[in-house]
Amino acid sequence: MLQLPIISRTPGQNFSFNQFASAPNSPDRNKQSTLKDYIKYRQRNLIDFVKSRLQSRQISPKNLFEVDLIRFAKKKNDSMPSPIIGEIKFLSTQKSIGDSIQIVDGQGMTDETLFDEIIDLENAINSNGGDKKMMGSQRQINHSIMKKEVTEDGQVKINQYTILQELGRGSFGKVKLAKDNNNRKYAMKICDRKKLKLKLLSSKLDAYSLLDKEIAIMKKVDHDNIVQLYEVIENPNNDKLYLVLEYMDGPQILSIKNKSIEIVWKLFRDFMLGLEYLHNFANIAHMDIKPENLLLNQEMKLKIADFGVSQIMDDDLVKTKIGTSAYQPPEVFTDEQVRGKPIDVWAAGLTLYQLVYNEHPFISLRQDQLKNNILTQSIKWRETSDLTDLLKRMLEKNPNDRITTQQVLEHPWVTKHGRFPLQNEHQGNFIVTESDIHNAITRLSFNMAIRTLNKLKQKLSQSRQRLKQRKALET
């Protein structure tokens, strides 16, 4: 059994999972038992911290929040062995995490540190005992509180990331180039939750409601041809949220000059590997496939980006039809229920068409004419070839007859008649659950609660002080 200096440590001090798994006599870090041992260690640590604070209290205040350790530790996986049960059961009825916050102040552990422990423990619980088919990415996505400063040369620094310049703006926020302390570059997507809540996408849907889904999806997906999410930074003092993403420093895909059919072939293979992974391994429809959302790095490797309107499919069906009109297939304009996979394939076909011919086959400046072109206009093909056959099958107006991503990977043009076979290395599949979506921005509710609590305590203290001063004046 792995031994760590638990007794000698300060309550609340932690070892990361990497430190835990690399310690002497540690079992294989990839074994499920190692993760379970780590969960027990973090639970024990949190219990010790709360116990030490409880013992130092002289007066027991009323509970402030209905979030207790047992519910917290058990809510993700009821079958998880938990040292909390039985050992510290009184916490479920008398003391809550929110209650213990009152004894944190001045005791050497800040609110933020406590919630770092809570978030880390929840991440471990989320990963506990899960079938790899259901788990998706095993990468650790950091959650942190924003600490803003201005460097000596006037640059804004968010935590360890120095903001360099703005890369662009979109309907869901702006993106800035940033570098960390090791000069590694990242794309930082800055979202304003208040503005997103005011941005209506339909009569029942605002842009903010899609943000937690986007984060949940990006946490789970893990593929060489999909842009990675590294960290989520929250600002407890306002409505800003920062997503630290992989920086793609290559050219825009449509701006590549003199691109040969071989370059298009290579880029399209990258593209379809990522899309097929989303469809058949993650059960996700991207719903906004277009050239602008296909990014390149300096090595000209293509990765799919922007999951702002992505959908988790239910029997291949999607709940909303939000997307870019110019890349929507005919059924979006005519059918009440639509399937997500054929929508993405159609948009991928239009993207391939643009890469080959440098034009959009249905484009029109008028929205009604664009819709009519998509519904009725036939493409006049310039040649007969394997490429033309693939485009025809991807741009089939009937979604039931449209080619699938798996069939695209096997198409003669993509494989050059079998000489260059293409398939994803992943096995099994996974799903992004409603629980994943609900907990995508878990920290927000905790921090806002603490912030609100501190403000109320401050106002209460001020009111009491004014009352004392008034009584003193009266006497």
Automatic annotation (TrEMBL):
Q: Which GO terms describe its molecular function?
A: ATP binding; protein serine/threonine kinase activity
Q: What is its EC number?
A: 2.7.11.1
A Gene Ontology cellular component where this protein is annotated is:
cytoplasm
* Catalyzed reaction equations: L-seryl-[protein] + ATP = O-phospho-L-seryl-[protein] + ADP + H(+); L-threonyl-[protein] + ATP = O-phospho-L-threonyl-[protein] + ADP + H(+)
- Binding positions for ATP? 189
What InterPro entries does the record tag this protein with? Prot_kinase_dom, Protein_kinase_ATP_BS, Ser/Thr_kinase_AS
Give the EC class as a word.
transferase
The similarity comment for this entry is: Belongs to the protein kinase superfamily.
Q: How does it assemble?
A: Monomer.
Q: What is this protein called?
A: non-specific serine/threonine protein kinase
